[in-house]
Design a protein that fits this description.
The structure is a homodimer. By secondary structure, chain A is an alpha/beta fold. In chain A, about 45% of the residues lie in helices and about 15% in strands. In chain A, the strands form two sheets. A six-stranded parallel sheet of chain A has the order 2-1-3-4-5-11, sandwiched between helices. A six-stranded mixed sheet of chain A has the order 7-6-8-9-10-12, sandwiched between helices. At the A-B interface, helix 4 and helix 8 of A face helix 4 and helix 8 of B. The structure holds a DNA duplex.
Chain lengths: ~350, ~350
Amino acid sequence: MEKENTYYGVKEIARRANVSIATVDRVIHNRSGVSEKTKKKINDIIKELDYQPNILASRLASRKIISLAILIPRVSEETDFWEAPMKGITRAEAEIRKYGVQVTTFYFDLNSQESFNEQAALILEGHFHGVLLAPSFIEASRKFVHACHKLKIPFVFIDSDVPDEHNLCYIGPHLFQSGYVGAKLSTYRLKEKHKVAVVNISKETDSYNYLQIEEGFRSYFKDHDLPTEIIRVDIKDTDSLSVARDLTRALHEHEDVEAIFVTNSRVFSVAAFLKKSKRTDISLIGYDYLKENISFLNQGLIDFLICHKPEEQGYRGLMALYQRLVLGTPVEKTHFMPIDIITKENQAFYQN
Amino acid sequence: MEKENTYYGVKEIARRANVSIATVDRVIHNRSGVSEKTKKKINDIIKELDYQPNILASRLASRKIISLAILIPRVSEETDFWEAPMKGITRAEAEIRKYGVQVTTFYFDLNSQESFNEQAALILEGHFHGVLLAPSFIEASRKFVHACHKLKIPFVFIDSDVPDEHNLCYIGPHLFQSGYVGAKLSTYRLKEKHKVAVVNISKETDSYNYLQIEEGFRSYFKDHDLPTEIIRVDIKDTDSLSVARDLTRALHEHEDVEAIFVTNSRVFSVAAFLKKSKRTDISLIGYDYLKENISFLNQGLIDFLICHKPEEQGYRGLMALYQRLVLGTPVEKTHFMPIDIITKENQAFYQN
DNA sequence: CTGAAAGCGCTTACAG
DNA sequence: CTGAAAGCGCTTACAG
């Protein structure tokens, strides 16, 4: 019950260095206006005492606001995937608000690179202290983060990565390995024919992300010397009618497809198609814990969903900026999310 | 950049109520010595202003230490499962230490109920403000938590539950459903014979926990009208020799077992046996992300591991006490952990 | 280059 | 039953 830790604070440092606490504060925060001599003296004492600043006191005393910007896709009618990261962001915000952190969210339209650029420009004008973004448009994101880097604004990627940038960190899936897991799950109900389809439903079917996933997917079959034939179906129009049309054609050409792997969360539209066309013989694997997907999972039309904890991505992304800007502690450059496997049986307890 | 929130604190409440902040403080903390009249006046203002106390300031000003006790199994040579919850506990402790929380851990021996009772008695003497425990011995735990309840010490269960107690909350798996998932995973490589074995390796093979898991396991086959025959193997001596001996006997009696489901983390000893006896035809499912288990998973001897985030259980368990004792916010009575499915392919990114 | 003093929003004796 | 004052460990103008 007694307080064992003989805690040393700025006061004790000041006493030992024969200076005022204001000077100690200057040294702690690397502010200018301290002679090299006293600076060294104070730093030595800090080291000796293994001084740990009290963030509570620090944030309480400082009325400085730290403002962060979020740049993510708007939730569309097509998919509410981005609700989950937003939920994580909101949760993190609630936790760090009391430390004087303020968050502003900017939404762009996944179908419009222009909207991304517009919002990015707004952020640049806003003099934020840090940025969290989903770099859905790679080249546009590159330009934007270069500007951030010039302004010394730290930025964090979630959901997908842009390699070789000066980002504070990346928080999201290891896409190749995720595709690899998808392949494994696709093999469970394979029979003699061994034909599977990779289905891409997206305006940008050859974006870096999808290519990574597909590469992982194909590698699994190679690594295991499986005779499986892999066909690829690209569906650029994401509405359900187009999906049904394109799938009808593909399955007509390849009658003996036994499994379909959808590379993103739009697997529900494939499930709906399979249901309508009574093709429950085909096993179906896709992404993300969306209400629609879970419904098809429970109906047995989707066999597996893979999920990368989108909510946690948002949460951790914001906390990484907080760590950097408020606590000043180091942040790991890459944080891969788990590749969670969701089935009908375990879905009820899944945590995004 | 500007501070938008017009924040009202005790000072403003005091001003409006025409009292001192000391009196406001008394009302906020429900301390005695305030007339009903002023109490009501202050409470009304608090409601009107939607006053949210600033925990930073509160913990900074208060030099009160909150001491918590942990009662969990010691890590044994047989299994290092309990390292994970401990890691979570340590992480939570680091986070809340600055709020004046102090944690003391008491270890008991999973093979000795006596050691549990001894440690429990020590905790009762220690005047702790809260307790986190793994109720491995149900009856002994019942007695202990009754004593806690009498002393008004809140307590939290992790890993397994003791129903109908006055616990603050339970954080752990839904055991029935976990067995259900285990059953599903056991069916993947089933062929014509359809015979599976449930293997219990524990001193207490009919503890409540294992029974729950087994019930879930059996229910899956019933629910799906599968003709599967389920045999049960109880192994009371947990060393590898005994396991090998008992398994040899069981597999001799039942030559056509196609899958083995081990109800706890000791699946590695079954894997070792299968490896030695070259029975890679048998598919193997078990529990927990232990080094040894992962090794066998990677060798292909274990097909699936189920995991309930033991580290998170420890973390959340401690945070629940913190929530109750420091923040005073409500805590959910039951928090089921996800039932995670781990394979060779996704294990590298698993988060305990 | 340095320091004295006020203040952040609370809690805690102490006095009445 | 109530209040004045000191203090928690910092930061922030301001003065020199």
